[in-house]
Design goal:
alpha/beta
């Protein structure tokens, strides 16, 4: 598909903005198109520090991955809503600490698939796989053969939902979708979430939401209580549900609320229920 000098892989509509490509643009990547940059710029006009916020979100992924591998003994991850690869990726961070770590990435954008297959190269001891799936259809994720072949659902899994739940309207009942994923995880698994919010700067965030909505995208900024619901009865790890920059920062944070995201990590408690996810043979 081609528009002017822009060429995209088959299945990629460069006339419709996509969140993964907009995020790539904010991070300084080149895997985006004019329509993505237009929406990205409109949102930056509403929130001038959006690029900083995107960077803080990525830093959280790295800190959470290190915490789950080193502190919680997690050796396998399911990352839903992967986005276009930006090094270091989750598996790179995790495998530096434990080379045998296995990671399955899931996203529904064809351009993510192209780059994932080219760039998400695992360590020799571990494994990295990509599946094409949508969080709105959790069974398409949990029943995927590559996931079944890669992850062992009898052992704890790190489930990461990074800046993805904002793309589901309340009418899609994202809390039910996340509950289905949580229920499939074995005891000892951990769930990491980041989610944009209007709690810190309502006017700016509401303008950004309108810019996305005007472009035909779904973008929902949720308050702290709505984000906490995604964790269900799982136990939030210290420091709890906090501004993204405040979650176990590597250095002191001058203004934690400068990045308009809530972030948290929770652990699934022991249970007599068997997980509903697939098991490796």
């Amino acid at each position: 598909m081609e528009l002017g000098n822009e060429v995209a892989p088959p299945g990629v509509n460069i006339n419709v903005p996509h969140s993964a490509r907009i995020y790539d643009y904010w991070l300084g990547g080149k895997d985006n198109f004019a329509v993505d940059r237009a929406v990205g710029d409109a949102m930056i006009q509403a929130i001038p520090d959006l690029r900083y916020m995107a960077g803080e979100n990525r830093k959280f992924v790295h800190r959470a991955a290190r915490a789950l591998v080193s502190g919680e003994g997690i050796r396998q991850f399911l990352d839903v809503g992967t986005g276009i690869p930006t090094s270091p990726n989750l598996h790179e961070v995790a495998q530096r600490l434990e080379p045998s770590t296995r990671v399955v990435y899931a996203d529904n954008d064809p351009i993510v698939l192209v780059h994932a297959r080219a760039l998400m190269i695992s360590s020799d001891e571990g494994r990295s796989e990509y599946i094409s799936a949508d969080i709105r259809d959790t069974r398409s994720i949990l029943d995927d053969k590559a996931l079944r072949d890669t992850l062992d659902f009898s052992k704890p899994i790190g489930l990461t939902l990074i800046a993805i739940l904002m793309l589901l309207a309340d009418a899609d009942d994202p809390w039910a979708r996340v509950a289905e994923l949580r229920d499939a995880m074995p005891s000892g698994s951990c769930l990491a979430i980041t989610h944009p919010t209007a709690d810190f700067a309502p006017d700016e965030m509401n303008q950004a939401v309108r810019a996305a909505t005007d472009a035909g995208m779904t973008l929902v900024a949720r308050d702290r209580a709505a984000v906490q619901r995604f964790f269900g009865d799982w136990e939030l790890l210290s420091p709890g549900l906090v501004p993204v920059s405040s979650w176990r920062p590597d250095a002191p944070v001058e203004n934690p609320e400068a990045a308009y995201y809530w972030a948290g990590v929770a652990r699934k408690p022991p249970s007599t229920r068997s997980p509903t996810g697939p098991s490796r043979p």
